[in-house]
């Protein structure tokens, strides 16, 4: 099975959005360079960010998100983001009325079932878990293998926490990647078991 990775851009003080779910400048690093990160060239980053991010993105088979993120993005109009094959949505509610049942989205109740579904769909590819409440629940359940953060030089002061409502310590190994880019610091940690 593929690696389960918790991932997001994050403020220096640990937030993935402000109190009103706005990411503010957290994604500015995706337009702060001269190397195209995506096929269309809408995202341009430094060479260091490209060398770190593109290989990771190419490994992602499935993304796990909460229903809140799904609703905020309007389900990406039924097309998984950034070339991901499937999206698993952790929710206690059914898909939205009129949702295309053929879209590669899977609505699952509970994080353990969501990760199991994602791993089955991903095979040996990476299962990416969005940071925040769902990511924190997956970490607390002992199902995260790796934590990746794109740390952006901004302080929010309050907002949506990277690790959600995790209320117990979890040890991470020393960082095995510390990559400075334009307006971002890429970090990668293995989760200690």
From TrEMBL:
GO BP, one annotated term: riboflavin biosynthetic process
Recorded GO MF terms: 5-amino-6-(5-phosphoribosylamino)uracil reductase activity
Annotated Bacterial bifunctional deaminase-reductase C-terminal domain residues: 4-168
Pfam families reported for this sequence: RibD_C (PF01872)
Name of the featured protein: Dihydrofolate reductase
Source species: Micromonospora auratinigra
Lineage, broadest ranks: Bacteria, Bacillati, Actinomycetota, Actinomycetes, Micromonosporales
């Amino acid at each position: 099975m593929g690696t389960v990775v918790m991932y997001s851009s994050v403020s220096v003080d640990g937030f993935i959005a402000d109190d009103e779910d706005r990411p503010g400048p957290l994604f500015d690093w995706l337009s702060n360079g001269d190397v195209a990160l995506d096929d269309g060239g809408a995202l341009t980053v430094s060479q260091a960010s490209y060398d770190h991010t593109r290989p990771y993105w190419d490994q992602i088979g499935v993304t796990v998100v909460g229903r809140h993120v799904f609703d905020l993005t309007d389900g990406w109009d039924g097309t998984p983001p950034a070339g991901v094959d499937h999206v698993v949505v952790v929710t206690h509610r059914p898909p939205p009325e009129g949702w295309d049942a053929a879209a590669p989205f899977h609505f699952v109740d509970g994080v353990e079932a969501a990760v199991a579904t994602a791993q089955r769909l991903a095979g040996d590819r990476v299962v990416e878990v969005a940071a925040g409440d769902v990511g924190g629940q997956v970490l607390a359940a002992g199902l995260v293998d790796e934590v990746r953060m794109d740390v952006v030089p901004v302080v929010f002061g309050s907002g949506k926490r990277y690790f959600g409502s995790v209320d117990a310590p979890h040890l991470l190994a020393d960082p095995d990647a510390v990559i400075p880019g334009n307006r971002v610091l890429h970090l990668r940690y293995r989760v200690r078991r």
